[in-house]
Design a protein that fits this description.
The protein is about 60% helix and about 0% strand. It is mainly alpha-helical.
């Protein structure tokens, strides 16, 4: 019965299991992120590219001011699912 196992051992076992899962999660994310980046590149619009440029400029300004440069603003919006722009990827 699990209640017979000391709490310290239960915690250590849970941490070991999490560490093993973390490696698997990272591998899965790497595979997914490559595919998602390719899909985003094929579907981007000129407005999307402008939004990326704006975000990069904001991050650069924040870093220059000694901040973290994470660009956390209320104006952040997801990239648009609208029309594809032929110049966005070498499709």
């Amino acid at each position: 019965m699990i209640l017979d196992v000391p709490a310290e051992r239960q915690i250590l076992a849970a941490l070991r299991a999490r560490r093993n899962r973390l490696r698997e999660v990272i591998e899965a994310r790497e595979a997914l992120e490559v595919k998602l980046a390719a899909l985003a590149a094929r579907r981007c619009t000129l407005e999307d590219l402008e939004a990326i440029d704006d975000a990069l400029a904001l991050m650069a300004r924040e870093i220059a001011q000694g901040e973290r440069g994470v660009g956390e603003t209320s104006t952040s919006t997801p990239l648009s699912p609208r029309r594809r722009t032929p110049g966005c990827s070498p499709a």
